[in-house]
From TrEMBL, chain A:
Record's keyword annotation contains Transmembrane: yes
High-level lineage: Bacteria, Bacillati, Actinomycetota, Actinomycetes, Pseudonocardiales
Annotated protein name in UniProt: Sugar ABC transporter permease
Protein's membrane topology: Multi-pass membrane protein
Highest taxon of the lineage: Bacteria
Places the protein is found: Cell membrane
PROSITE patterns assigned: ABC_TM1 (PS50928)
Family per record: Belongs to the binding-protein-dependent transport system permease family.
Regions crossing the membrane: 6-26, 70-90, 102-122, 134-153, 184-203, 236-257
One Pfam family here: BPD_transp_1
Automatic annotation (TrEMBL), chain B:
Record's protein name: Sugar ABC transporter permease
Keyword rRNA processing: no
One Pfam family recorded for the sequence: BPD_transp_1
Keywords: Cell membrane, Membrane, Transmembrane, Transmembrane helix, Transport
Domain ABC transmembrane type-1 intervals: 105-321
Disordered: annotated span: 1-32
Similarity-based family: Belongs to the binding-protein-dependent transport system permease family.
Keyword Transmembrane: yes
Subcellular location: Cell membrane
Ranges annotated as biased composition (Low complexity): 1-28
Taxonomic source organism: Lentzea flava
Taxonomy of the source species: Bacteria, Bacillati, Actinomycetota, Actinomycetes, Pseudonocardiales
Membrane topology per record: Multi-pass membrane protein
Gene3D superfamilies noted in UniProt: MetI-like (1.10.3720.10)
Length: 272, 333
């Protein structure tokens, strides 16, 4: 019993350790201007304001960076999912010459050290005249997420019994019909999970966004936020509010996927 | 790449159905299938074509190109004029003779090993702890870990910079309050070691959730009767861990250790936003060095040589990882 309560105390302390930066980000963002930078000990906020969020939202560059980030990330993830799903179906539903080597290629490509490909990517985008264009980032994020999407979706397609598709085909569906009416709906949770993880990868990406885009109006959010000291000076309240706004989309998607993942697992359990 | 982690481990577990069963050929369908034979044979290749082209173009070509570039003299002048100047292994000689390269490599290795060691160790301990927690404490811990995991890297880095701020950071204020007066105005980013320690703490803090969640999932999968049997045999806690838990999660632990090593070795964003590799280059790692040489100084050839050396190190780790993965997953491919 004593051992159990000691474990629980350790658990609560760890929870505090993991929560604190989030707590500090939110409370700093909600402190009135002028009371963030203070030598007073202010662990617990005494007054709450949303002024900082307005400041961050209206800072030059924030909205365009948010738009750029959303545009680049969503386009790249959508492309990676569509291309990934066709490859996944091919890998998991067909027997053909070279299948095994293709599966291996996907596995290896997934581990490609993109950071080490910075120089050739930069030179390639320059040759393609895509340097300084957001489409270069779309291409990079598509390439970064594609092997992961194809590999993961292959796992999810493998989890759907092929007999279901066969039954639909016996009932007169074509290949496409069977895929569209049987496989695709069952793939739902897997699709959501995969695209969310791909989304977060692209949403976080910093190095390529910094190197391939120099002009301020085409910056993505991570790069914009990395220059927060030029944007905010020592206005930590504003910087924290911007961080909160940057976190919200990722957190929302994360919570969605947690639920869907659980749903996917239980669905599998019922199937047996 | 933090976020990508769960499904990677979760997905193969789900995929137990043997793939690639040819669709059942029934009486009615047989005729149509024979007519569409050529198309059917081509179909998998057509489905694979977009992915294959994309991978060869956007990953394969750069990999070849980085090797080729590393044998060229390619500075801003050559780039603008479009000149191709081959220099053989000059770039490698330059890099390998540079004392700074060895310092940076050693620093990167030490940094990676410490961050991976601490995060995997802590992840395993937390996973073990989660098993004995009261449900509400466990859920609380899981939710807070989820918050840490979901926070975008740049947001969490900004928060850490603020918490460790020299004059108004909450950490220094707390330390002073606790009686450690020497921390008033203490700069956490005054030396490379101190900067990298804070960066390491940030990375560990964000890496533990993935590690703890996947290891916990592995622990939950260990059959209960094994523990009961160990209990009946009178095994102590440590003996149970050695004899029951360890063999069951060893391969999972290997896998997450390899993945963490791959990820932590090439970290750039966190190190860059804290101090841009400073003060005076003391927190520069290989990823930062490559950026400084290649992008900041426009020495593309030299930077490509650094990239190739990075890839060799990562390639060795990946090779080891793949060999193990293929050994354990042989039947699934």
């Amino acid at each position: 019993m004593l051992k159990k309560s000691a474990a629980n105390v350790a658990g609560v302390l760890l929870a505090l350790f993991f929560l604190f930066p989030t707590y500090w980000m939110i409370t700093s963002a909600m402190k009135p201007q002028g009371s963030t930078i203070t030598s007073d000990y202010d662990l617990v906020p005494l007054s709450v304001t949303f002024v900082n969020f307005v400041t961050a939202w209206t800072k030059p560059g924030f909205l365009s960076a948010l738009g750029n980030s959303l545009m680049v990330t969503l386009t790249a993830v959508l492309a990676a999912i569509v291309v990934g799903i066709t490859a996944a179906v091919a890998m998991s539903r067909f027997a053909f010459r070279g299948r095994k080597s293709f599966v291996l290629l996907m596995l290896v490509a997934q581990m490609a050290p993109f950071e080490a490909l910075l120089i050739p990517m930069f030179l390639m985008m320059r040759d393609l005249q895509l340097y300084e264009h957001l489409s270069s980032l779309v291409l990079v994020y598509f390439a970064v997420t594609l092997p992961f999407c194809a590999w993961t979706l292959r796992g999810f397609v493998n989890g759907i019994p092929v007999e279901l598709e066969e039954a639909a085909m016996v009932d007169g569906c074509g290949r496409w019909g069977a895929f569209q009416k049987v496989t695709l709906p069952l793939l739902g949770p897997g699709l959501v999970a995969t695209s969310v993880f791909a989304f977060i990868t692209a949403w976080n990406e910093f190095l390529f966004a910094k190197v391939l885009i120099r002009s301020q109006d085409r910056e993505t959010l991570p790069v914009w936020l990395s220059g927060f000291q030029t944007a905010f000076g020592t206005d930590w309240g504003g910087a924290m509010a911007a961080s909160v706004l940057f976190t919200v989309p990722a957190l929302v998607f994360f919570l969605i996927v947690q639920r869907k993942m659980v749903a996917g697992v239980t669905a599998g359990a019922v199937k047996g | 790449m933090t976020a990508v982690k769960t499904t990677e481990t979760a997905a193969p577990a789900g995929g137990t159905t043997p793939p690639a069963l040819p669709p059942a050929v029934t009486g009615g369908a047989r005729k149509r299938r024979r007519r569409g034979g050529a198309f059917d044979r081509a179909l998998p290749y057509l489905l694979l074509a977009p992915a294959l082209i994309a991978i060869l173009w956007l990953i394969g070509f750069p990999v070849v190109s980085v090797f080729v570039t590393s044998f060229r003299q390619l500075n801003l002048g050559e780039l603008v004029r479009g000149e191709i100047v081959w220099t053989g292994i000059d770039n490698y000689v330059t890099v390998l003779q540079d004392e700074r390269f060895w310092t940076v490599t050693l620093r990167t290795v030490v940094f990676t090993v410490s961050v991976v060691g601490v995060s995997v160790g802590a992840g395993l301990l937390i996973a073990l702890l989660m098993r004995v927690l009261t449900p509400w404490v466990r859920i609380l811990l899981q939710i807070t870990m989820l918050c840490a995991w979901a926070m975008p890297i740049l947001a969490s880095a900004t928060v850490y910079i603020w918490m460790f701020d020299q004059n108004y950071g909450i950490l220094n204020k707390t330390l002073v309050k606790l009686g450690f007066d020497q921390f008033a105005g203490h700069s956490w980013f005054g030396s490379g070691t101190s900067t990298l320690s804070v960066v390491g703490l940030l990375i560990v803090w964000q890496a533990i959730p993935f590690l703890a969640f996947s290891l916990y999932a592995g622990l939950v999968g260990v059959p209960r009767d094994l523990y009961e049997a160990a209990g009946i045999d009178g095994a102590s806690g440590w003996q149970t861990f050695r004899a029951v838990t360890w063999p069951e999660i060893k391969s999972l632990l290997m896998m997450v250790t390899f993945l963490s090593t791959l990820w932590d070795f090439k970290v750039f964003a966190q190190i860059w936003v804290f101090k841009e590799g400073g003060p005076s280059g003391e927190s520069t790692t290989l990823a930062v060095l490559q950026y400084l040489e290649g992008i900041a100084k426009s020495h593309f050839g030299v930077a490509a040589a650094i990239s190739v050396l990075m890839m060799l190190i990562l390639g060795l780790i990946t090779f080891q990882y793949l060999r193990r993965l293929l050994q354990t997953e042989e039947g699934k491919i």
